[in-house]
Amino acid sequence: MINNALQSDDSGTRNRCYIIFGNGTLLLQQMGKKDEGNYTFYAKNTLGEDAMKVSVQVVSNLPQISSKYGRTENKILAVYYQTLLLDCKAEGMPEPQITWTTPYGMSLPTPYLGGRFQVHRNGTLELRGIRKTDEGRFLCIAKNYLGEASLAVDLEVASLDEKPSFPVPNTEVLSLEADGDDISLECRATGKPKPEFLWILPNGTAMSPGMKLQWFFHYLGNGTLHIMQTGVIDKGVYQCLAKNVARQAEKRYALEPGQKPHIRSTASTMKISVTYLSNGTLQVKETSEFDRGSYTCKATNTFGSSTLSYPVSVMVFPPQITHAPPSITRVNRGSPVILNCIAAGIPKPDISWTLPGCTTLEGNLVIKDPGLMNSGIYKCNARNAVGTDFKCTKGLKMPPTIWHLNGIFP
């Protein structure tokens, strides 16, 4: 209880840390616990007096710094020449004053602006164009007359950065059994600096390294998520986030209830080829009538098996020439001529030409500069495994040459 009596005047009367003004206002400065109590205001004139009592309680709090990392000492890795923001949010009563101290002893008040460093009014320290020489401990101090609090940030500067990446594939699908064994989902990512890992469960729960939740455990260091005694209840998509200062990458595991194999048939018209490929395809090369019959594909896993049969008929036709030059081919001397020959058949026939001198050539025949020496019989041959066919064109007939007194006319 304060028993001092203060009387107002026009200029304001001062006594210790109190000021009473002419209008009756009482100003209490630098309040402390000792100033708590009842304050009575008296007003009187020639007709009488009146009084009003005010009870004052002093509330005070020591400074406290709230860190997004949840610790008063933190380590941060930044990339060379980037911009970094260091937060320092302080609470207290009276409101504390915030000051930053750099690794080389420079004190930065709030607010501050100079060079590459700036302290914003909310206490955040901004570092622009980070250099290797900026490495060390940055200390934030929040202080009022009741005490102080501090936040230490140890800064490390990396010269190069590399976004985290996963070996392909980035998405994997795994089968779940009704009463299965333990499963370990690996999250192997590379990057500079070394990435930190975070797992997101199908229900949206985030699991940081070292965290254990029911039958889930996120190992420290290597990013592996271990699921004990898996069952159908564990189905869903599990996300692993690998993050460093250069950004983040994501790998997904889709856990699905196991099913027995299901074979999807191909179209009714198919090519049979006998080579077994890794995707389950059976190739039968150079088919013949002996390859006809029923081919059965069987797929098996731990949940059962499925079969699919293909009845195969081998169709064979001997060659038949469907387009060939006429029986007599006439050309102009020196003009190129093309002899086409087309044949049908199963398997597809091979085409060749037998020339007048018994020389054999493959494919369509082109004579660039025909002359009398090219006259003769040209034979088109079509051949496959079942048989042969041929057609001939007789010689290259050329128009006669007429002699004239003034020259030669064709």
Automatic annotation (TrEMBL):
Domain Ig-like: 63-158, 169-313, 319-384
Gene3D superfamilies the record matches: Immunoglobulins
Pfam family, one: Ig_3
SMART domains noted in UniProt: IG (SM00409), IGc2 (SM00408)
A GO molecular-function descriptor: axon guidance receptor activity
GO cellular-component term (any): axon
Domain of life from the UniProt record: Eukaryota
GO biological process, one term: synapse organization
The protein, known as: Ig-like domain-containing protein
Lineage of the organism: Eukaryota, Metazoa, Chordata, Craniata, Vertebrata
